[in-house]
Amino acid sequence: MSVSLSGPIGPHSGYGVDGRGGDYNTKPAPRVRPEAQHIATQHQGSVGNLFELQGTRIGISQYRPKSAPKDHMKANARRMRQIQRASKQREEESNKPVKAMWKSTKYDTVQSKVGEELKKEPPAPRPSSANYLRAHSRTGSVDGSRGIRTPSPAPSRPCSRTSSVERLDIPRAESAMDVKLIRRDVDFVKANGRAVRKPQIKRAPSLTALDDLKKKKEEDEKNYKRGVMPKYLVNRHKEWDRAEQERIANMPDPDCPPGHHKMPDEERKKTLSLLRDKEKSYMQQLSALPVRTDTLRVRTRKDELDKKLTEIEEAIKVFNRPKVFVKD
């Protein structure tokens, strides 16, 4: 059976369709050899290498990024806001209430003398004519001598309603003839020459007080005993030592058995000295006995002395210890 085709054979339905997905890149990755950088440098020419300075090739234009233009309006606005914040902070700090200074309440009940003087009524004012054309008002003393003083005017009294003119005690003009001025013969030229030869520079009171303070400090430094402990510190150390000794004396001894107490050290030493004295006296009595012990009396006496000496030796061993405990 023969089949005839009326036209060309069509393409397959799966021809040209990649089943690996659309993200798959059909182009191969470029292959770069390790010596590619060296080859690229060689193909740039050798003239630029001759003018290379500190790793920078001359003749090759380098790209320099253009700096962004500065916005002066924003900078000024930012600066103004900073100044406003600082000013506002200063105002808030200045509005804080000031802490009141400490004041002693010791003199709160004491009345002020200045306040009492201010509460008094002021004296009545005197008219301007009180000192007008007063006799001897411009006379003064010569060379420190006093002239005749005019009588002081009487205290002014408040004006009464009936009389509107004050009566003033003003000396009369005729009394000017009675004024006597005393003049002494003083050689002012010699006095001035003497003053020039020995000038005395007047200093301010503050400088004088400062010099006195410096002298006082120097004297205190000179008289100060260095390295000597003050008396109050010495007394305090003695008190501390006394308290420590009392604490140690009153502290219970850990070696003390129950039902006993420690004998004081002074009493122990006193008992020890008495025992040694007795031992010495018994030794003298023992040495005074005859050498032969034929009689019963001598043997009995010798045995008694030996027994007492043995007891005393045992007691001396006990009281010779640093601690002696006695039953309560």
UniProtKB/TrEMBL annotation:
One cellular component term from this protein's GO annotations in UniProt: cilium
Composition skew (Basic and acidic residues), residue ranges: 114-123, 164-174
UniProt-annotated location(s): Cell projection, Cilium; Cytoplasm, Cytoskeleton
Main location: other
Positions of the UniProt region annotated as Disordered: 1-35, 60-174
Listed name of the protein: Uncharacterized protein
Alphabetical keyword list: Cell projection, Cytoplasm, Cytoskeleton
